[in-house]
Specification:
Helices cover 52% and strands 12% of the residues. It is α/β, with parallel strands linked by helices. It binds cytidine-5'-diphosphate (CDP). The site of cytidine-5'-diphosphate has 15 residues, from helix 2, helix 4 and helix 9.
C-alpha cells in the first residue's frame, strides 16, 4: 500500500493550497476530490442525470474549464448528498490513494470514509469569515463578479449541507490533526502540515 495523506475540511479552508504544497514537498501525487463532485454538479446544471454523470465520469472531466464557480460549487454540494453518487466515485479515489510513491487527497470524507487507513489525516479549517474572505479574493482575482456577502452565504450554505448530510458528513476523523488556519500565513499552514506528516512518517 502507498503512503496516503488525507486532508479534509470545510469550504475554502486552504485545503487546496496546503495539499499542493505538501504534495510538491514530498513528491506525492495530489487529487482534489472536490473536482469530482464539481464535475458531476456541472453536468447536472447542463441537464444530465446525476448518477449517470457520476458513473460516466472520466479523469479528463476534472480538467474542464469553469469548475471553480460558486454555481458549480453549490451544484456539487447538492449532488454530494446522494449516497449513490458518492458510491460511484469511491473506486477512482481509492485507486488514486493506493498509487505507488504516495498520494495526497483533499476533500470532506477522505480520512473518515475513502481512506480510513491513511497514514496521516489532517483537518484544515478556519473561521467562516476568514474562509469567505479568502474565497472572495480568489474569485475576484479570476474575474468572477461576486460580493463578499454572496460568498459568505455560499460558504455557510455548503458547510451546513456538507455537515448535516446522512452519508459521509464533513467531520474530522478521530485521529486527525486539526490545523486552524484562521491566523496562519500560507507558509505557516504548510509548515504545520509538513510537520504533522513528518511526525507520522518516522
Ligand atoms: O474548494 P472548496 O473547499 O470550496 O470546495 P470543494 O472541495 O471543491 O468541494 C465542493 C463540494 O463538493 C463540497 O461543498 C462538498 O459538498 C463536495 N465534496 C464532498 O462531498 N466530498 C469530497 N470529498 C469533496 C467535495
Amino acid at each position: 500500500m502507498g503512503f496516503t495523506v488525507a486532508i479534509d475540511g470545510p469550504a475554502a479552508a486552504g485545503k487546496g493550497t496546503v495539499s499542493k504544497a505538501v504534495a510538491a514537498h514530498f513528491g506525492f501525487a495530489h487529487l482534489d476530490t472536490g473536482l469530482l463532485y464539481r464535475a458531476v454538479g456541472r453536468k447536472v446544471i447542463e441537464g444530465a442525470d446525476r448518477l449517470a454523470a457520476a458513473k460516466a465520469l472520466l479523469a479528463e472531466d476534472l480538467e474542464a474549464e469553469g469548475l471553480r464557480t460558486p454555481e458549480v460549487a453549490q451544484a456539487a454540494s447538492q449532488v454530494a448528498v446522494d449516497p449513490e453518487v458518492r458510491a460511484a466515485l469511491v473506486d477512482f479515489q481509492r485507486a488514486f490513494a493506493a498509487r505507488a510513491g504516495g498520494a495526497v487527497l483533499d476533500g470532506r470524507d477522505i480520512g473518515t470514509v475513502i481512506c480510513p487507513e491513511a497514514q496521516v489525516k489532517l483537518f484544515v479549517t478556519a473561521s467562516p469569515e476568514v474562509r469567505a474572505e479568502r474565497r472572495y479574493l480568489e474569485l475576484a482575482a479570476t474575474g468572477h463578479e461576486v460580493t463578499r456577502e454572496e460568498v459568505l452565504a455560499d460558504v455557510i450554505a455548503r458547510d451546513e449541507r456538507d455537515s448535516e448530510r446522512a452519508t459521509a458528513p464533513l467531520r474530522p476523523a478521530e485521529d486527525a490533526v486539526v490545523i486552524d488556519t484562521s491566523d496562519l500565513s500560507i507558509d505557516d499552514a504548510v509548515a504545520a502540515a509538513i510537520a504533522a506528516i513528518e511526525a507520522r512518517r518516522g
